[in-house]
Design brief:
This protein is about 65% helix and about 5% strand. The chain is mostly helical.
């Protein structure tokens, strides 16, 4: 959604940026708000307002906004300000396809290198996922923690960084699915059981296929508000 009124151009840099640590607080604050859906697609961000909420100066907020823009979560519009990215169906489908490729590669490495301790942690992660079926926030936290275990057994730093970036971008869509599909949590639980066993098999092809199937099983475009496919997704 576009806003025609004048907006605070607070994302523009007008001074040397602070240390990276200074922008971590507003970065985490905004990232959590985007991932949780508290800041929805198309929302305008004001550096001044965010700084006031956090009790800090505007410059660290500006740095955080630019960082989120480089990660594809925020759009900087000349003379208009910063807005939460709003994805169309084709863009959402592409995000999930990219995530399937990247996380599939992580699963390959995990299958080849995970040890007994890692598998024990992954199976405990499955238990935590199963214990969170009544709470979406806890379920997503457990889901993310389980995927983080797999990433620990992947040596590719850049690949893991891309996985995290796309995970953040798709989390609001995952929340929509969990809210609107009565079977989503049970299906996700079953897919993760199969995924852990695929990685435990030590077969990288099997692990990659299981991971891709888990991610691509979601009809990503149907998760968008207003989609004609939304009802079909809810009835799954």
């Amino acid at each position: 959604m576009h806003h025609d009124k004048a907006v605070d151009p607070g994302w523009a840099s007008d001074a040397a940026g602070p240390s990276e640590g200074a922008s971590d607080i507003p970065y985490r604050f905004l990232l959590d708000a985007i991932r949780s859906g508290r800041l929805g697609a198309g929302t305008h961000l004001s550096a001044e307002e965010t700084a006031r909420k956090l009790g800090i100066s505007r410059q660290p907020v500006r740095d955080a906004i630019r960082r989120l823009a480089t990660e594809g979560l925020i759009e900087l519009r000349p003379n208009r300000g910063a807005f939460i990215i709003s994805h169309g169906p084709a863009e959402v489908t592409e995000l999930f396809e990219l995530r399937a490729v990247y996380e599939g590669l992580v699963a390959r490495d995990a299958a080849l290198s995970i040890d007994g301790a890692g598998l024990d942690r992954a199976r405990r992660g499955l238990l935590a996922l199963g214990q969170a079926l009544s709470d979406i926030d806890r379920f997503i936290a457990a889901h993310d923690a389980l995927h983080a275990i797999f990433r620990e057994y992947c040596p590719k730093t850049r690949l893991k960084s891309e996985c995290m970036r796309i995970q953040h971008a798709t989390e609001p869509l995952l929340r929509l699915m969990l809210h609107h599909s009565p079977t989503a949590m049970d299906m996700t639980m079953a897919e993760h059981r199969a995924l852990v066993e695929a990685i435990a098999s030590g077969d990288p092809d099997h692990a990659e296929i299981a991971m891709r199937a888990h991610i691509l099983d979601q009809d990503a475009a149907a998760l968008l508000p207003g989609s004609d496919d939304r009802l079909r997704m809810v009835q799954r």
